[in-house]
Amino acid sequence: MIKSQQKGLKRYGPGYSIAAFSRASGLSYRRVERAVAAGEINCVKLGGVSRIPETELTRVLRAFGVETEAAE
Fold first, then answer.
1. Using an 8 Å Cβ cutoff, are 35 and 21 in contact?
2. CA angle (60 as vertex; 47, 71 as ends), nearest 5
3. Could you give the CA distance from residue 59 to residue 54 in angstroms, rounded to a whole number?
4. pTM
5. What is the distance between the alpha carbons of residues 9 and 53, in angstroms, rounded to a whole number?
6. Contact 56, 42 (CB under 8 A)
7. Do residues 60 and 42 touch, judged by C-beta distance below 8 A?
8. Is 52 exposed, middle or buried (0-12, 13-18, 19+ CB in 10 A)?
């Protein structure tokens, strides 16, 4: 693989990284990082990489009062 291609690689797989969860939820990176450290957001560590399950996004948005379903 060419070195420039390696630089652009991202981790793919189930769940969110802290940065990806931050972007998807609209919360700041630091806020998500603190919530993970405090155990407020469930997180799984796989091979030294923290992954937040996809189900946490809906739960956290509801906890923060953000509407997750379309209004009727």
1. no
2. 135
3. 9
4. 0.71
5. 21
6. yes
7. no
8. buried
Nearest by Cα to 42 from 30, 10, 7, 50:
50
Which structure tokens are listed for 35? Answer: 């919530």
Span 12-35, average pLDDT: 89
Closest Cα partner for 32 from 46, 15, 52?
A: 52
- pLDDT, residue 47, reads 83
Enumerate residues 6+ apart whose C-beta is below 8 A from 64.
25, 27
Q: What is the pLDDT of residues 29-65, one digit of tens each?
A: 999 999 999 999 999 987 888 899 999 998 998 887 7
- Residue 14: phi and psi, rounded to 5, are -70, 145
